[in-house]
Amino acid sequence: MKAKVIILSSFIFTILKAETHYVPEDFPSIQYAIDASTNSDTIIVSTGVYFENINFNGKSIIVTSRYIIDNDPLIAGSTIIDAQGIASGVTFSSGEGQESVIAGFTIQNGIGNNEDPDGNGSFYTYGGGIYCEDSSPLIKDCIIKNNTANQGGGAGIFCYNASPVFEGCYIFDNQTDDVGGGFYARTGSSPEFYDCTFLNNTAEFGGGCYIRNESSPILSSVIFNQNTANNSGGAIAIKDDVSLIATQVVIVDNEAEGLGGGLYVNDASPEFSFCLIADNFSGAGGGAYIRDPSTVVMTNTTVANNSAGSY
């Protein structure tokens, strides 16, 4: 509790000491305010629906709704960035660090950016809600919902060689016909999630999240509930030398038509402590399906009341 108070106090102090711009009072859109800002500025956005796709363009700024000023978390639900079915809702792709902050918004109706992060000439659609490449921003108290990213992945969030921090976020009702309904990370990404919820996200692989390619995510006090994979990994799918650290994670009532209703592990080394994996369903491995070569450590973790329909 003390650590959270310190973080919140620091966040408020940063807002108060920075030059502040208001939307729509000073600028008609959030992106106009970002374009006019310099490092250390703060943008405070009034409630309403903003039909736009915003890009931080490498700036170390805070973009927040009035929830932090008015001390009302419900304001995040009524301060909306609506991507209008055009690209990603929010983009971080210019080396942003944790001094780049977005807080207290609903981010919805994004379809992802058409990108080639590998630089191999193949473009796919990634990150319907948030696209994050080579960046490590802070995303705080945001609702990320009703986004898609077909033929690519990461309907809610996509990370490539990126290490963003998510605090108090609610990621739900995102869907893709590829991987990572709520979240997709790869290529050395180290995202961190604290006090977040993944609810009712859908993908072919990794309904809640899909993580691969030597990534090292941290999940702490995170809930995965009612996520669905049409193939494998109803809640979480990890592979290709991923080192996941999961503490106080609840994986309940998720479903995969193929393997791993709760958890699918393939050539990865996750560590679970004080976790619950229960009431999940799949064709095989109702709670967890683990493939060689994988090393899974579970400490003070309960795996119970899961069901496998075929095997």
Walkthrough of the structure:
The chain is built from three helices and 38 strands. The strands form five sheets. Strands 1-2-5-8-13-17-20-24-28-32-36 form an eleven-stranded parallel β-sheet, sandwiched between helices. Strands 3-6-9-14-18-21-25-29-33-37 form a ten-stranded parallel β-sheet, with no helix packed on it. Strands 4-7-12-16-19-23-27-31-35 form a nine-stranded parallel β-sheet. A hairpin with an 8-residue loop joins β10 (113-115) and β11 (124-126). The longest helix has 16 residues, at 2-17.
In short:
The protein is 9% helix and 41% strand. The chain is mainly beta and 311 residues long. Mean pLDDT is 95; it is low at 1-7.
Cα(first) to Cα(last) distance is 44 Å
Strand order of the largest sheet: 1-2-5-8-13-17-20-24-28-32-36
Query: What characteristic shape results from the CA principal axes?
Result: globular
The whole-number mean of residue pLDDT values reads: 95
User: What is the CA-atom radius of gyration, in angstroms?
Assistant: 19 Å
Question: Are there runs of 5+ residues with pLDDT below 50, and where?
Answer: 1-7
Largest sheet entry: 11 strands, parallel
The tally of strands reads: 38
Number of helices: 3
Tell me roughly what share of residues is in helical segments.
under 10%
